[in-house]
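Why NAD(P)-dependent dehydrogenase, short-chain alcohol dehydrogenase family? Reviewers of the renewal asked for a concrete example.
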Amino acid sequence: MNTYELLKPEPGLRVLITGAASGIGAALAQAFLQTQADVCICDVDPAAVARFVDTHPALHGAVGDVSDVEQVDAVIDHARQALGGLDLLVNNAGIAGPTGPVEALDPAAWDRTVATNLNSQFYFLRRAVPLIKATSTRGSIITMSSVAGRLGYPYRTPYAATKWALVGLMRSLAIELGPSNVRVNAILPGVVEGERMDRVIAARADSLGVPFDTMRNDYLNKISLRRMVTVTDIAAMALFLASPAAVNLTGQAISVDGNLEYL
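Here is what the prediction returned.
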């Protein structure tokens, strides 16, 4: 085999991606499909899942609220039946959570952020790990954290707290699952170009009482390369982590962010 062939996943990889009907998750699904992977996505939005599967008929789609343990169990059962096993879980689903000073945050919004960003990953792991151990010889898990999982993020404390927790979860699982030859890594996206980031910038601009363009430039000036990353950049890293070239990479929190210096 050509050495550089190791830089892409082997064909037939069985992949489950959460939160994958749009944004980063959709880019991940499209990228893995291009490598002849067998991909199952899940998302909370039934219409979005239906549209995505219609335009990518090789996909398997499931609908579920990732913060609901019973719905997660149903998604895992669907993926197991559709894929015949599992080689890779990409725990991608998440929400931005509320923006504001900690004393003004709604406890219900805090709880929803923790449930969606952190608890959901546990719900998938508790069911996916035994399946990966039982059916895969190339098992791995990719946790989607954030650059907010290595930097403080004022006015976004619920989001940052969950993303830091995910890095700790990943590092602990890498140790736990290493003897079973299951690799666990985290991707930490930076400022990702798109509508979701525009909403985040708008919310923070409103919270601080400054114009949107001023806040957008403030974000860019914190990035060494002075540009946002794209969903394609994130997908490329996920493909590498799932490839034979990364066979000895585990327990790593890898930033894809143009070197975001601070938040």
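The helical segments are 23-34, 46-55, 69-83, 107-135, 157-177, 195-208, 212-221, 231-241. This is the kind of structural detail the renewal will allow us to pursue systematically.
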